[in-house]
Structures are given as C-alpha cells and as structure tokens.
Specification:
Blueprint: E1 4-14, E2 18-25, E3 29-35, H1 44-48, E4 55-60, E5 65-73, H2 82-98, H3 106-118, H4 125-139, E6 159-163, E7 168-171, E8 176-177, H5 178-185, H6 195-210, H7 216-236
Parallel strand pairs: 3-5
Antiparallel strand pairs: 1-2, 1-4, 2-3, 4-5, 6-7, 6-8
Helix pairs in contact: 2-4, 2-7, 3-4, 4-6
Length: about 240
C-alpha cells in the first residue's frame, strides 16, 4: 500500500517488545495495529512513534487488528506543554473513544492537523478543539440539528437543551438561549461570549458516544484549573 499520513492517538505495551497502537490516518480513519519490536531498547521506530508527531505508515492484515510494516517520520512533533499538552491528550483520547475502526474521516484528520499547529498558543485552543469535536460529530452523524424536534426554528428568546436522541433542542430551564444557538448553527464561534455555549453543545452531543466512563484528560484539566485557582487565591492574600 501507499504510505499513509498518520498520527498516534494511543499506545500501550504488548507482549515483551511490541505495542498496540491506535492511529488516526488520512484515508482510513482510526486504525488499530501491532507495532512489533517498537518497545525494544534502541529501536529507531520507538523514537518516531510519539504523540503529536506526523508519520507515514503502512500495514497488513484483513481483520480489525493490523500489523504495521512501515513507520517513518514526516516532520517534527508539535511542542506542547501545560494546558496545550492536556488539550492534545484530550483530542487523542476523544478520537480513540468515539471513532469506529476504519471509518474514513478525512475532515477529522484535517482539523486534527490544524489543531496541533494552534495548541501552543492559548488564544486558539478552545476554537480548535470545538472545530475538531464538530468534525467528529458530523462524521458520526451526531451533530445537532439546531431546530426544535419538529424541525422548526428556535425562538431567540427561549432557552433550550439538547435532546441527544433526536439531536434537536427542546425548551428547558438552564439551557442556552435560541439566539446563541442560531449563531452556533452558522458556525459563528468567534463571536464574543460563544466559547462557553459551544463547549456545552459539543459536550452534550458527545456524551452518548462516550458513555458513562469519564475521560481521563478531562479530569487532568479540572485538576490543572483547580491548582491555578488555588495559586491565584494564595497570591491575593496579604
């Protein structure tokens, strides 16, 4: 096969010197494979098979679990630290959890690649993650319809919550106002004040796909935010 552009999403040890890996590929979506010998000391592939590093890979196998044959680097890994690193880990964990094996998702691959360029800069992180989440939801036919259950327009003055079963919005206390949802439906996520509502919508839409098992990366993000609040309060004390 022609070498396929790919990124590592997840890796865990397998037997003595190999690893089980989940890869996001350009044309085949999420691919699960055995990387033989990659855990062996001195293996050249070990240094290449790292998160956020662009790869070229080939594999063999007819079942869901492939065997990697070629693995070459095609550029430098994104330099992520702190919150940027946690955002990258979240993206990797999310795609590993929600993407079926070998579902072609070229749009997800494109937004993932763009996200890695943005994550080192704090001001672009939230938007990059929302665009990636939206691409994944659209690929899985799970993106909200931004209408009421009958297909009618949302009232700008009413508040709504997402009904995951119908992917429509129903009137509900504590939800998001119709005007904001209309802006989100048009993709106007750069409008002031939309970061929070956009995150709430994508999180609600992703919840049925993720199930009851929490994302480890979200917990790490909460811990980081809590530490920052504690440090900020400590600096304010006389």
């Amino acid at each position: 096969m022609t070498p396929e552009p790919a990124f590592l999403l997840h890796k865990r040890p397998y037997r003595e010197t190999s690893a089980l890996v989940d890869l996001l590929t350009l044309h085949h979506g999420r691919v699960r494979a055995v990387a033989q010998g990659v855990q062996r000391p001195g293996s050249r592939s070990r240094g290449r098979l790292q998160p956020f590093a662009p790869l070229h890979v080939t594999w063999v196998g007819e079942g869901e679990l492939k065997r990697l044959r070629l693995m070459e680097g095609r550029g430098s890994a994104a330099l992520l630290a702190g919150e940027g690193l946690l955002c990258g880990l979240y993206a990797n964990e999310l795609l590993t959890r929600v993407l079926p094996v070998e579902l072609p998702v070229p749009e997800v691959f494109a937004f993932y690649t763009a996200m890695l360029e943005v994550l080192p800069r704090p001001e672009g992180r939230a938007g990059a993650l929302r665009r990636l989440e939206a691409a994944a939801l659209e690929a899985l036919d799970a993106w909200p319809r931004f209408t009421d259950p009958e297909g009618g327009e949302l009232d700008p003055q009413r508040r709504y919550v997402l009904d995951p079963a119908s992917r429509a919005f129903v009137a509900g206390e504590g939800g998001i106002d119709g005007r904001t949802l209309r802006l989100l439906a048009r993709g106007d996520w750069a409008e002031p004040g939309l970061a929070g509502p956009a995150k709430a919508v994508t999180r609600a839409a992703l919840a049925p796909l993720l199930g009851s098992r929490p994302l480890r990366s979200r917990e790490l993000m909460r811990q980081l935010a809590q530490r920052r609040r504690v440090h900020a309060e400590a600096r304010q004390q006389p």
